Amino acid sequence: MLNMKLVKSPRQMRRIGDELRQTGKKIGFVPTMGYLHDGHLSLIRSSASECDVTVVSIYVNPLQFGPGEDLQRYPRDLKRDLKLAAAAGADVVFAPSDKQMYPERMLSFIEVEKLPDYLCGVRRPGHFRGVTTVVGKLFNIVGPDRAYFGNKDYQQARVISRMVNDLNFPLKIRLLPTIREADGLAMSSRNAYLNEEERRQARVLIESLRLARRLIREGTRNSEKIKKVMGQLITTRKSAKIDYIQISDPLTLEPKTKVVGDVLVALAVFIGKTRLIDNLIVKGN
Ligand code: PAF
After folding, report:
1. CB of 187 within 8 A of CB of 38?
2. Phi and psi (nearest 5°) for 59?
């Protein structure tokens, strides 16, 4: 869209949202940390097709990065993102600075209990508190009717959905499928960190998930056994180091020792220094 608006101040964003709501426009919202890829663009396209106005936020939120994580080197390219967002159908890009989002030291946070006790939450203490706090702020600033998230960050989507239900945020969460490269690697801004050889080895995430799905379909029910076989495959790749492999209940995220009904098979693997995540929901029986 040629006349896409770039908004930096939360107050101006709030005013635009208020005006849109007063004229009965349905606002779709795609929160991102930028460095947009096809996964983000598919969320923007879905919002543009379902809503009157699509707002995309681009903000690398320091609150969700732990010490020693990649906050400083997280890829950023606003100029490129603006072009991609406009072409995908965004009407407004909200790209605030740290000072605008956090003008003073935060004393208030949103924290969902239990769901962050598993999977990435164990490895990244405080991460989901940072996510829910910024997403809650963004929801208050933009005031969307619908917000769009990708399945790749499955735990994040569960945590945010729970926050929206528990705290009566007046919007619907739309959770859309993971968008993958031709070889199956889940799209992620962090894929940009991989060199050529690492990029080849990164395929092992989806290969191991598909292997788990095949084992389950063939009747294997013992989670430890499935995780072991996945681990054996992953460690055949020189640059791969397993952070976790988990088979969990898709709603509560609690680990399951036996595959009964649908399960979430999720993993985080370091490829070189880059931590990648992926998951599949597999139908048990
Ligand atoms: O998924 C992301 O990019 C981020 O966690 C989000 C939801 C934009 C919050 O900073």
Report:
1. yes
2. -155, 120
Residue 73 within a domain: yes
| 268-279 tens-digit pLDDT | 999 999 999 999
Are residues 210 and 162 part of one domain? no
Among the listed residues 63, 172, 155, 175, the one whose alpha carbon sits nearest the alpha carbon of residue 114: 155
Q: Are 64 and 164 found together in one domain?
A: yes
Do the domain assignments include residue 181?
A: no
* 57 CA closest ligand 1 atom index: 8
Q: Are residues 42 and 105 in the same domain?
A: yes
Same structural domain, 70 and 210: no
User: What is the residue with the minimal CA distance to atom 5 of ligand 1?
Assistant: 131
- 106 and 223 part of one domain: no
Residue 84, domain CATH: 3.40.50.620
**One-letter amino acid identity for 98?**
D
Residues having CB closer than 6 A to ligand 1 are 31-33, 61, 64, 131, 134-135, 153, 156
User: From ligand 1's centre to the CA of 128, what distance in Å?
Assistant: 10
CA of 131 to the centre of ligand 1 (A): 6
Sheet containing 274-282, strands listed edge to edge, beginning at the edge strand earlier in sequence: 240-248, 263-271, 274-282
Does the pLDDT at position 2 exceed 60?
A: no
State pTM to two decimals: 0.97
Do the domain assignments include residue 184? no
Check whether residue 202 and residue 170 sit in a common domain: no
Name the region of 272 (left: φ>0; alpha: ψ -120 to 50; beta: rest): left
The string of pLDDT tens digits covering residues 204-241 is: 999 999 999 999 999 999 999 999 999 999 999 999 99
